[in-house]
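for ur thesis appendix - Energy transducer TonB. copy paste whatever u need, i formatted it the way the template wanted (i think)
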Amino acid sequence: MYKIVTLSLALAATAVLLAEPVTAGAEEPSIVVTPEKSHAQFVATVSRDLDDQLEAASRYPYLPFGEGITKVRFTRTADGAPENVTIYRKSGIRTLDRIARRAVSNLRTLNEVPADLGPDQVYQANIVFANNAERAEELQDQLIAEETARFASDPSERRVFAFGSAAARPSS
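the 3d part is after this line
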């Protein structure tokens, strides 16, 4: 335990020191280097935003008790707003598909993307709607199988940047 605490403090101190710009002389300008956003960070950030947007978009006076997988494809504008939002795969329940499309249209975290994702990048939000945890796991397994088949079907599909969310369901 002591080694972990010591290592954590040492890493924190190093991070603080590295965060400060270093100058060799008074005349030289400061240079601050910030790391680019990784794919994992980007997926985590956008997935959290998608969860929040699904929560907001699903505040209907009535929410159908249905299950399924909706896949939404889109691109983004230069300032990070989703555009060309379309349903790529329907869940079979129109209201769930509308909720998914609305949630993706309202994403707010697409302004900082990893450097290797170009301006014409196609994104895909995989959204699972389930009424309970067991069914959510079954649908996640189905989604994995579908995505594996999609990748195998066409090499250009590998360029689509996919991320996902399991939509929260009301407990009542």
